[in-house]
Design a protein that fits this description.
Layout (H helix, E strand, L loop, with lengths): L40 H17 L3 H18 L4
Helix pairs in contact: 1-2
Protein name: DUF4167 domain-containing protein
Organism: Azospirillum himalayense
Length: 82
């Protein structure tokens, strides 16, 4: 069997099936849909609202709504309403 790994042989490993290496993002397609937003909960709330406005201006209403939902989450975190 080609994937046998005897207990004493740590150098032979099974291939990672289904895991592909991530290369650089294709031009025009971001690597992450939502890059990390740094700052306090209040700052994150404001930043997500700004992203929602940007998405709305670019015509992407789905992305705008997603950003508003993130902003609402951080609003609740900032005001202890979770």
């Amino acid at each position: 069997m080609p994937f046998d790994n005897p207990a004493g042989d740590r150098t032979r490993r099974q291939p990672r099936i289904g895991k592909t290496a991530r290369g650089p993002a294709t031009q025009g397609i971001p690597a992450l849909a939502h890059p990390k937003v740094n700052g306090s909960a209040q700052q994150k709330h404001v930043q997500w609202l700004a992203r929602a406005d940007d998405a709305e201006r670019s015509g992407d209403s789905v992305e705008a709504e997603t950003c508003r939902q993130h902003a609402e989450h951080w609003f609740r975190v900032a005001h202890d309403r979770i």
